[in-house]
Amino acid sequence: MNTTRRKVITGVSVAIVGGLAGCTGGDSDDGPEEVDFDQNNSDVDEDDISVPALTFSFSYREDDGVVSISHLGGRSVSADRLYIRGEGVADEYNETSFPELPSNDIEAGSDFRSGDDVTVEVVEDAFRVEVVWVDEETNYPVTVDEYSEGMDG
């Protein structure tokens, strides 16, 4: 089986860029109102976005048809700013914020901390699951990590 795990933005480079954006700090962030995942906003320079340093672990349980995603380290971030996006995942999980994911106990307004996890249901043998963080200022989605099985490339 072809398994690919690609770290889109490494933890070291993210920390250097300024890993404090989107971290906890006492604000009552309810997350973005609506995220345009196909955004091609020429007004946003991705190099100007300070993505928080996050480390994830992915575990595919083929018998259950789910991928578990665990926060292994880095800063705590607002769960409302983290989304799942992918191919071959159940519709109710695609482009969905962590608090809105079915079968998960992450509450809106809470922080996603080291040790927390979510699960994503996959419906195809070949699939890709991305963890996306959305910048508070620009509402720009940035893929911070991804995992795939059986996908080319």
Map the helices and strands:
Elements: E1 3-6, H1 11-18, E2 54-61, E3 66-74, E4 77-78, E5 82-87, E6 96-97, E7 111-112, E8 117-121, E9 127-134, E10 141-149
Antiparallel strand pairs: 1-10, 2-3, 3-8, 4-7, 5-6, 5-9, 9-10
What can you tell me about this protein's structure?
The protein has one domain (3-22, 48-149): Sandwich (Immunoglobulin-like), CATH 2.60.40. Helix content is 5%, strand content 36%. The radius of gyration is 15 Å and the shape is globular. It is mainly beta and 153 residues long. The longest helix is centred in the N-terminal third of the chain and has 8 residues, at 11-18. The protein has one helix at 11-18; strands at 3-6, 54-61, 66-74, 77-78, 82-87, 96-97, 111-112, 117-121, 127-134, 141-149. The strands form 3 sheets. It has a 5-stranded antiparallel sheet with strand order 1-10-9-5-6, with no helix packed on it.
Q: What is the count of β-strands?
A: 10
Helix fraction, binned, reads under 10%
Do you know the CATH topology? Answer: Immunoglobulin-like
Oligomer: single chain
CATH classification, class level: Mainly Beta
User: How many domains in all?
Assistant: 1
How many helices? The count is 1
Radius of gyration: 15 Å
Quickly give the CATH architecture: Sandwich
Main sheet specs: 5 strands, antiparallel
Q: What is the residue-mean pLDDT, rounded to a whole number?
A: 80
Strand line-up in the sheet with most strands: 1-10-9-5-6
